[in-house]
Structure formats: structure tokens, C-alpha cells
From TrEMBL:
Protein name: DoxX family protein
Organism placement in taxonomy: Bacteria, Pseudomonadati, Pseudomonadota, Alphaproteobacteria, Hyphomicrobiales
Source organism per UniProt: Sinorhizobium psoraleae
Record family assignment: Belongs to the DoxX family.
Location of the protein in the cell: Cell membrane
Domain of life, source organism: Bacteria
Sorted UniProt keywords: Cell membrane, Membrane, Transmembrane, Transmembrane helix
Record-annotated membrane-spanning stretches: 47-68, 75-94, 106-126
Membrane topology: Multi-pass membrane protein
Length: 137
């Protein structure tokens, strides 16, 4: 019991680390779709206002918001929805099994973003700083 209480004080930092690492990796999908970096998608760069282009913008901009912890809950809600749609539209029709349809990442992103909807950003976030400054006024 004592060990659990000791670890509890680090929960906001562990949550922040999960948020930051998730956002960094998630943004990479956006930079690939929008800028072709680090490598262009196999099908080439999508039109900006296509479904893939809009998802790239969501991944790029939404990922930045999640990274810095700005408007974390509403942005995470939108991104969780994006990942659910991506899974059911792109991956699930290929196979029932995520390991075969390559939808593992979409599922994990969806549930990490849902976690952030309910927990908030954790430590090291703009949302947390603005909450502290509002409480001081």
C-alpha cells in the first residue's frame, strides 16, 4: 500500500509523458501526409481537402495541441473520433484482426486520446498553467 501511495504522486508526470510521446509520434503521421516528411505516403501526397488531407491536418495541428497540452480534452475527443473512423473505414474492412489489418495504432491512439478526454493533460501543459493562473486570481 505504501508503494502505491509513493507512486501516485508521479501520476501527473507519467500521464504527461504519455501525452507528449503520443503527440510526437501522432504528429509524424500528419507531417507525412501534409509535407511528405520523413517520407511521402505510398499513394503520394493527398489533396489537402480530401479525407486523407483533412486527417493529416488534424494529426498535425491536433497533435501540436496535445503535445503542448492546449485544449487537451476537446482536441483529444476529436482525435479519438478520427482514429475510430480511420479504424472502421480503412483497417476493419481488410480483416477482423487488428494484427492483420494493421489497425493496432489506430486503436491505441483512439484509447489514449479517450483517456486524455477523461483525465486531462497531466503535468507540463498549457491547460494546467492556465488553470493555476485562474485559481490565483
Amino acid at each position: 500500500m505504501l508503494q502505491m501511495q509513493f507512486l501516485d504522486r508521479y501520476s501527473p508526470y507519467a500521464l504527461a509523458a504519455l501525452r507528449i510521446v503520443t503527440a510526437l509520434i501522432f504528429r509524424e503521421h500528419g507531417t507525412q501526409k501534409i509535407f511528405g516528411f520523413p517520407a511521402p505516403p505510398e499513394q503520394g501526397l493527398p489533396a489537402l481537402f480530401s479525407l486523407s488531407g483533412i486527417s493529416g491536418l488534424m494529426e498535425l495541428v491536433g497533435g501540436l495541441f496535445i503535445l503542448v497540452g492546449l485544449l487537451t480534452r476537446p482536441v483529444a475527443f476529436l482525435l479519438a473520433g478520427e482514429m475510430a473512423v480511420a479504424y472502421w473505414m480503412v483497417h476493419a474492412p481488410q480483416s477482423f484482426f487488428p494484427v492483420l489489418n494493421e489497425g493496432d495504432a489506430s486503436i491505441l491512439y483512439c484509447f489514449v486520446f479517450l483517456l486524455l478526454v477523461f483525465t486531462g493533460p497531466g503535468a507540463w501543459s498549457i491547460d494546467g498553467r492556465s488553470a493555476k493562473s485562474t485559481a490565483l486570481q
